């Protein structure tokens, strides 16, 4: 579970709803016809804007935003350095038995290409193409929430216009103008709430998830090509540490020192 996503969503809901309750008359913010226009219109237009297979996959996309964890970059560096050490001692073919134990399909495929003796340029071309296609798939999934973020305020304004038209038909009753204006504006509130509390944050989190996965795969490509070139494991480690933020580099160095101490 991604605590940042869960805590952020709950905090936004609690603070916004709390502000409504503290301000008095929370029932004034509940209007079923306005919900139909804003939420129903947004979902309907979003479904119209995307192919049905993408709509069916919305559950998996939400799972990536709320459940998926960041890649273990430190563990990945350690795995690739250990492969470099083994390949240096026993040759590339010795890595074939290790591929079946890898959970990551991309890394498993990368190592298998190297073990099979594929030309380095071809290995890089295949893996780079796969990373590019991954980015396209992630962008398509994120686009659904970008579409909802654009449409929700627009349908909120549409609902407001509908409410104003209905209100202006009753200008002969001055006492009804205030409540009528309030109901007309509720749809704008619903649209803004839906876009800013739900759609935009999820879209941004999906962008972060995509960047993290692309970074981890670029790290794998760099490591695999270095292993194929027969580079010294220390050089491989230094190359891969470039992909880590400074705090993770420090953690990796500390774990390496502890490991060296245990071996000593």
Question: What does this entry look like structurally?
Answer:
By secondary structure, the chain is mainly α. It has eleven helices and no strands. The protein has helices at residues 3-23, 32-49, 52-56, 58-66, 73-90, 96-99, 105-115, 120-168, 177-228, 233-241, 246-263. Helix 2 (32-49) packs parallel to helix 9 (177-228), helix 4 (58-66) crosses helix 9 (177-228) and helix 9 (177-228) runs antiparallel to helix 10 (233-241).
The residue-averaged pLDDT reads 88
Instruction: Give me the count of strands.
Output: 0
- What pattern of helices and strands is seen along the backbone? HHHHHHHHHHH
Structural class: mainly alpha
Strand content: under 5%
So how many helices?
Answer: 11
Using the CA coordinates, give the radius of gyration.
Answer: 27 Å
Bulk shape: elongated
Roughly how many Å apart are the termini?
38 Å
Return residue spans where pLDDT drops below 50 for at least 5 consecutive residues. Answer: none
Let me know the largest β-sheet: none
Helix content: over 70%
Supply database-style keywords:
single chain; 264 residues; 81% helix; mainly alpha; 0% strand
């Amino acid at each position: 579970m991604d605590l940042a996503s869960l805590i952020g969503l709950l905090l936004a809901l609690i603070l916004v709803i709390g502000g409504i309750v503290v301000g008095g008359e929370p029932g004034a913010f509940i209007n079923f016809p306005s919900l139909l226009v804003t939420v129903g219109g947004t979902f309907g237009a979003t479904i119209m804007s995307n192919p049905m297979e993408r709509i069916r996959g919305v559950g998996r996309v939400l799972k990536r935003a709320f459940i998926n964890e960041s890649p273990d970059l430190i563990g990945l560096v350690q795995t690739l350095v250990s492969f470099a050490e083994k390949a240096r001692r026993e040759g590339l073919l010795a890595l074939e038995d290790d591929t079946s134990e890898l959970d990551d399909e991309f890394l498993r495929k990368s190592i298998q290409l190297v073990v099979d003796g594929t030309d380095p340029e071809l290995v890089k071309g295949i893996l780079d193409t796969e990373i590019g296609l991954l980015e396209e798939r992630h962008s398509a999934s994120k686009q659904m929430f970008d579409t909802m973020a654009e449409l929700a305020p627009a349908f909120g304004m549409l609902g407001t216009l509908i409410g104003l038209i209905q209100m202006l038909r009753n200008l002969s009753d001055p006492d009804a103008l205030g409540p009528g204006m309030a109901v007309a504006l509720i749809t704008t509130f619903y649209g803004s709430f839906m876009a800013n509390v739900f759609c935009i944050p999820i879209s941004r989190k999906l962008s972060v998830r995509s960047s993290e996965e692309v970074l981890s795969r670029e790290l794998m490509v760099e490591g695999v090509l270095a292993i194929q070139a027969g580079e010294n494991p220390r050089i491989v480690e230094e190359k891969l540490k470039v992909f880590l933020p400074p705090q993770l580099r420090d953690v990796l160095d500390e774990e390496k020192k502890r490991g060296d101490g245990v071996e000593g």
